[in-house]
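Box 3.1 — From sequence to structure: Cell division protein FtsX
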Amino acid sequence: MRAQFVLSEIGVGLRRNLTMTFAVIVSVALSLALFGGSLLMSDQVSTMKGYWYDKVNVSIFLCNKHDAENDVHCAKGAVTEDQKKQILADLKKMPVVENVTSESQDEAYKHYKEQFGNSPLAGSLTPDQMQESYRIKLKDPQKYQVIATAFNGRDGVQSVQDQKGILDNLFQLLNLMNRGALGVMAMMLIVALLLIVNTVRVSAFSRRRETGIMRLVGASGFYIQAPFIAEAAVAGLIGGGLACVGLVVGRYFTIDHGMDLSHKLTLINFVGWDAVLTKLPLILATSVLMPSLAAFFALRKYLKV
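Predicted structure (token representation):
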């Protein structure tokens, strides 16, 4: 009987404040969708870091005859065969180096044409203008500075470049975007909480006679509060369900189908469905607990029961 009364009161409350209930559902759905998206973005950045940091190389670019004329780092002329052999031998002796591969001028020219063949500059370049290089795979990508210190400024070396630095800039941008999404999520969450509190107060005010009678006949505080808390929880749960649907649909149409980024951007290791599915219970739990707690504290002050 009590359960039937609570359920009937939930239905009455949701219908009576239909506009505000709709606003609560939408705001909860948006805030929790952003929350879930931020969690997935954080997982994506971590996955990309693990994937790409394991593949980054340190490159030592060697001076050619054109660099000797135009680059202060190559003022002593193009690299000689003896210098190349010495650089390679020193690299192989270093404990931080896992392996070394060399790229000739012809290979560098071929790779450049493959990547930038449509560039206007590509037609004016010749193989002898390209730089020979050594690509070093480190046992620990964080030890780049060891290579830079050992070979920067050395005769025959034009520059030492670390691909990890380029990736760090990318990951900083992604983290900044993620923090921006979290900021928007926090604002939406505040809006949702304010709407929940106002909705509960309006509902409690519209039924003040019923609650007054219930207090007079000795009903417990929880029995009076239960319908209002349940209303907020149901509205929040609907919003959480919409947020979950949004995440699943968004993952499906942006990565697997529709935009099909998993096939168009093969260089990015996207998070899988397991990462999405593990976030859904958290979103649903938050969608129920957040409105329930907001309604509980609002009612304690408003009803004074």
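Summary of the box: The mean pLDDT is 78.
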